[in-house]
Design brief:
Layout: E1 16-27, E2 31-35, E3 38-41, E4 43-45, E5 50-54, H1 56-71, E6 80-83, E7 89-91, H2 101-105, E8 108-112, E9 121-125, E10 129-131, E11 134-136, E12 143-149, E13 157-175, E14 180-182, H3 196-203, E15 218-220, H4 223-239, E16 255-264, E17 276-291, E18 294-309, H5 311-318, E19 326-331, E20 344-347, H6 352-362, H7 369-372
Parallel strand pairs: 3-13, 19-20
Antiparallel strand pairs: 1-13, 1-16, 2-3, 4-5, 5-11, 6-7, 8-9, 10-13, 11-13, 12-13, 14-15, 16-19, 17-18
Helix pairs in contact: 1-4, 4-6
């Protein structure tokens, strides 16, 4: 390992972005298999009840589409790779991290099919972006919508669609090695022609690669390109700029409530401290009005109730932060109240772009020690 990439004894800037998204979704968001004429919803069935969920694959697919639609990036088309021994085509990841941003963000496994006189092989990338399922906080009932298709001159074809409305969350970790690739992620040990020297030769003319920092062990993209990719990803996740894919015909975009973001030097259990509670609030507002030449004060009592972020629980996590670590909450509901002494920075949705730039400014993009340990 080059001295340039060794970790110093004291780590000052955060290396990890951890996030938890609290959102409400409804409908048959991420359809499961069809059972007879029923389109089922993905769900966990436990002793307490039914917990609907959306798979992380579906969330990533929505993010891929947003990267193409809103930011002009290309994503992997999963084209045919090669012939197998029996003459069939084999499809999968291309591993082209220069052209396809999702191969960088979400990782890949490139397989080389066996053919006459050649061995099969594979090389893969450890994804710098990892996400959980979006799962309901509480067990909820699943209802059924009856529908049908009505072809001309034929009998109607009835079917059922399971539907659910739930408040849930998904969480994830973004590591700081977006745009950084170890040689074992780009070469095939069994293929002498696919060694790092040749790979570097193929990409040496790319304006995305940092030629000064790439070496015999690593391919590193320019910092500008790395930040461009991370900026787009953060804006999509924090602003909810993606649509959840589905197999039925209803639009599904998460109704965001809160997004909690932590910049940390080490991985911490953020998701364990992000919860919601049902709360009733009573507020008093004083109005002044003039009547018969006198100023009269009126006190109006207002009540509000509903699910809110458990700020007391989140304070426990905030007290775990050290040094330059930071904790942000994007309040889409507009009901969070924090004390000036809290280590929680509350942001409005209109401040997301500035928040993303603040994250990019404070994130350590040059300390790859955690990543390189995968290959020691």
């Amino acid at each position: 390992m080059n001295q340039e990439y060794k970790e110093s004894v004291e780590v000052k800037n955060p290396r990890f972005i951890q996030f938890v998204v609290v959102t409400e979704v409804e409908g048959n968001v991420n359809a499961d298999e069809s059972v007879g004429t029923r389109i089922t919803i993905k769900k966990f069935v436990t002793r307490e009840g039914i917990y609907p969920y959306v798979s992380s694959r579906a969330i990533k697919k929505g993010i891929r589409l947003a990267l193409e639609r809103d930011y002009g990036f290309k994503t992997d088309p999963f084209e045919t790779l090669s012939d197998t021994q029996i003459g069939k085509k084999q499809e999968g990841d291309s591993g082209n991290f220069l052209d396809y941003i999702d191969q960088d963000l979400f990782g890949y496994m490139v397989t080389k099919a066996k053919s006459q006189g050649e061995k099969g092989g594979a090389w893969k990338r450890k994804a710098p972006v990892e996400m959980s399922y979006l799962i309901s906080f509480f067990p909820i009932p699943v209802t059924t919508e009856f529908a049908g298709r009505f072809p001309k001159r034929e009998n109607p074809i009835p079917f059922e669609i399971e539907q659910a409305k739930f408040l849930g969350r998904f969480y994830g970790i973004i590591y700081n090695y977006i745009g950084v690739f170890h040689k074992e992620e780009v070469v095939d040990k069994e293929d002498e022609d696919r060694n790092l020297k040749n790979i570097l030769g193929e990409v040496k003319n790319s304006d995305k690669v940092d030629q000064n920092r790439s070496n015999e062990k690593m391919v590193i993209l320019k910092e500008e390109e790395r930040k461009k990719r991370l900026r787009a990803l953060l804006e999509i996740i924090l602003a909810g700029k993606f649509v959840l894919p589905r197999s039925t015909d209803q639009l599904n975009q998460g109704n965001y409530k809160y997004v909690v973001v932590a910049l940390t030097n080490s991985i911490k259990p953020l998701s364990a401290f992000v919860n919601i509670k049902y709360q009733k609030d009573r507020e008093y507002e004083i109005f002044k009005e003039e009547k018969d030449g006198k100023i009269i004060e009126k006190v109006v009592e207002r009540f509000s109730e509903g699910y809110q972020l458990d700020i007391e629980k989140l304070r426990e996590f905030a007290n775990m932060l050290e040094g330059e670590e930071k904790l942000y909450v994007i309040d889409y509901v507009g009901n969070l109240k924090v004390d000036n002494r809290d280590k929680i920075i509350v942001k409005k949705p209109s401040e997301i772009k500035n928040l993303v730039e603040d994250i990019l400014k404070n994130l350590d993009l040059n300390n790859f020690n955690y990543y390189l340990k995968f290959y020691e």
